[in-house]
Amino acid sequence: MEREKNKLIKVILLTDFGRELDGFQARGELGTRIQKVVESGTVKVMAAFHIEEFKKQGGKIQVSGAIRNEKVVIDHIDEIVGNTGSRPDLSIVREVRVLTDPSLECVYELAPLIDPNIHSCGTVRPHGEKELRQPEKDFYIVGAKSYGRAPTFLMATGYEQVRSIVTALVGDMESAQKVELELPETGVCSLGASSTDSCCEPVQLKEASSDCCSPAKTEKAGSSSCCG
Asked: CA neighbours within 13 Å on the CB side: how many for 108?
C-alpha cells in the first residue's frame, strides 16, 4: 500500500485536455498551462483514483482508494473540492409528460450520445427536434438543461437545437431534420479502458459520421454510442 503525505496539492483528474490538438485555441491553451503546472511539481495528478473511504484525521481528512488496483492512502488533506458538474432542477416540469435519463437527468434520447462514462470525445452526433421531442406535445428541453449532468455542452449545439425545433413548430419538418453541426475536436477521447485502435481517435467529423460509428467499429469499441 502506497501512503501519500499531503506536501503537494493533490488532484483527482477526471478528464484531460487536448492542448495543441484542441479545436478551441483557448481551451487548448488552458490544458497546456495545466500541464506546465503539473510538470513543475506544484500539483500532483493522481489519475483514475477510485475513492473507497474517507476518515477524519484530527482536523484533516484521510482518503483511501486505489489507482490501477493498487491501494493508496492520502493523509492530512485540508480540503476536498468535488467538481461533479451541475444537476438540473426538474421540478418545473413535474406536471408535464417528460422523459429523462435516470443517470444523467438529460433528455432521454441524448443519453447514449453524451454519457461521459462511455466516451469523452467532446463531440456529439448532430441532433435536433427529433431527438429532443418529448411525450408532451410541442414541449422541448434545450440548451445546457438538455444535457442534464453531462459537462460537454457547447452553445453552438444549443443554437442548432433551437433552429431545428423552431422550423418543426412552423411546419417545416424537412428543414428540421437537416441538422448540420460541426463541433471542434477536443484532441482527447477515451472509451473507458484505453484503446490504441479506438474509433474515437481525432478525425474530421464528416469522416466520423460515415465511418467512425459504423457497426463494425462500434462493436469493436464496445459502445453503442462510439464517439457520438
From this structure: 9
Does the CA dihedral 214-188-122-181 come out positive or negative? Answer: negative
Q: What is the DSSP code string of 185-211?
A: P-S----SS--TT-TTSS--HHHIIII
- Give the Cβ contact number of residue 185 at 10 Å: 21
**Residue whose C-alpha cell reads 484542441 in the numeric block:** 22
How open is the CA angle 111-113-115, to the nearest 5 degrees?
60
- From the number of C-beta atoms within 10 Å of its C-beta (0-12, 13-18, 19+), residue 56 rates as exposed
In whole angstroms, give the CA distance from residue 151 to residue 198: 22
Q: For residue 193, which amino acid is it?
A: A
DSSP sequence for 138-166? T-B--GGGGGTT-S---HHHHHHHHHHHH
Q: Which domains does the chain have, with CATH numbers?
A: 2-77 (3.50.50.60), 91-190 (no CATH)
Q: Per the structure block, which three cell numbers stand in for 63?
A: 482518503
Enter the pTM of the model.
0.59
Give tens-digit pLDDT for 114-155: 887 775 555 677 789 999 999 999 999 999 899 998 887 888
